[in-house]
Amino acid sequence: MTLVAGVDSSTQSCKVVIRDADSGALVREGRASHPDGTEVHPEHWWTALNSAIEQAGGLADVAAVSVAAQQHGMVCLDEDGEVVRPALLWNDTRSAGAAADLVAELGGPKAWAEAVGSVPVASFTVTKLRWLARNEPDNAGRTRSVCLPHDWLTWRLAGRPGTITTDRGDASGTGYWSPAIGEYRTDLLELAMGRVPELPRVLGPAEQAGTAEGSGALLAPGTGDNMAAALGVGMRPGDVVVSIGTSGTAFAVAEAPSADPSGAVAGFADATGRYLPLVCTLNAARVLDAAARMLRVTVQELSDLALRAPAGADGLTLVPYLEGERTPNLPDATGSLHGLRLGNSTPEHLARAAVEGMLCGLADALDALGLEPQRVLLIGGGARSEAVRRIAPTVFGRPVLVPTPGEYVADGAARQAAWLLSGQPEPPVWDTGAVERYEADPTPGLRERYHEAARQ
């Protein structure tokens, strides 16, 4: 049996899966936690990765490894390859002002969409580099090279070679790499930072990044977490995935690049040579965590409470902008509760409002893609909630399919590693397991009430 390893270095933790390269069967796995916060020193990721690898039985018998990680994070290295400052993560919104300035300086949203397929907001790497140049000029001056979380971890696994690599999927989330032309837009980087630091070499979808130090395993190019999730869930044309993790995303696989001047749709590349139009919300599974804390229950108990309340929560509406919001672009927004009355002042109603509010934000993301999907697949940690599964069709207005719960990002990375070994033009076909179908009638007036509340 030939084994491959897939890594998911997410905001909250690191997961490693070891799978059979031919069938995709899970052999063993491990995980370790990351510290909280919107800025984290990359060494914490490295420590967690090594702990997760050890828990998964090591890499001695593994033929290939791929690292997928959270997108957008700004990792700055000095001339010795040392980290200049803690990495600013995708959910750090301090660069919101820098994003607005950059959009204006290039001539508006349309100019950015045409240049790189996306209109930058605070999550994009390019805005964080502008913030760094303005607020920490000494650190900006020390920065010789800039990379992303998955780039840095792959480089560390390879023993810190002279060249850092990335892939087109993760590069497309920086704001200075164009999916349409397949090249860096160094003019945009210079606009943001005042100069052009060294950048990772962009590899093809199944191009080798190097060899893991110690084990000798081949290193695949790796990718961003959303691109890996698309591989892991086995997306096909006509599918839209709604992922409920730390962030919420709705994305599809496309044959041509996209450029939405409204900024709602990010025109990313995927991990197969295609494209991945994506809409992201900052507030997803942690809305459920916050509601559970407020009610002093577990997330499972929150699900049970929500299912005991009527659809629409008798008018109680939660707008869950608990960390600002990316779609719509409201970095300074806060959450709010509307329609509170004596009759709906119960734990059950609040639990239902939390689930429905989170799903309304994701329904807006789904609509923004402008597609008529053949299938809507619901994945991510939040999709493990029975309430989320049952309520989603009432909010989305269409059936949803829920694949067998799994570590889709790590699985997608493992599939990429197997692809590297195979040398074939497309990734191997793995059995992704059973899919459950959930259907329900839409809840009348629910999304209208949500949109009215969100405008207040």
Can you put this structure into words, describing what you see?
The chain is an alpha+beta fold. The chain has 15 helices and 24 strands. Strands 1, 2, 3, 5, 13, 14 and 15 form a 7-stranded mixed beta sheet that branches. Strands 18-19-17-16-22 form a 5-stranded mixed beta sheet, sandwiched between helices. A hairpin with a 5-residue loop joins β18 (266-269) and β19. α1 packs across α6, α4 (125-135) runs parallel beside α8 and α10 runs antiparallel to α12. It is globular, with a radius of gyration of 21 Å. The relative contact order is 0.14. The model has no long low-confidence stretch (mean pLDDT 96).
Poorly predicted regions are: none
Main sheet: strands, sense, barrel: 7 strands, mixed
Radius of gyration: 21 Å
Structural shape: globular
**Averaged pLDDT, please?**
96
End-to-end C-alpha gap: 59 Å
List keywords for this structure.
single chain, 456 residues, alpha+beta, 7-stranded mixed β-sheet, 5-stranded mixed β-sheet, 15 helices
Short description:
35% of the residues lie in helices and 21% in strands. The protein is an alpha+beta fold and 456 residues long.
Ordered list of secondary-structure elements with their pairings:
Elements lengths: L2 E7 L3 E8 L5 E8 L5 E2 L1 H14 L6 E8 L5 E3 L9 E2 L7 H11 L2 H8 L8 H11 L1 H6 L2 E3 L1 H9 L7 E3 H4 L5 E2 L4 E2 L1 H8 L7 E3 L6 E2 L6 E2 L3 E2 H8 L6 E6 L3 E5 L13 E4 L5 E7 L3 H11 L3 H10 L8 E3 L16 E3 L8 H22 L6 E5 L6 H11 L3 E4 L4 H15 L12 E4 L7 H10 L1
Parallel strand pairs: 1-5, 5-14, 5-15, 9-12, 16-22
Antiparallel strand pairs: 1-2, 2-3, 4-7, 6-8, 10-11, 13-14, 16-17, 17-19, 18-19, 20-21, 23-24
Helix pairs in contact: 1-6, 2-4, 4-8, 9-14, 10-12, 11-12, 11-13, 12-13
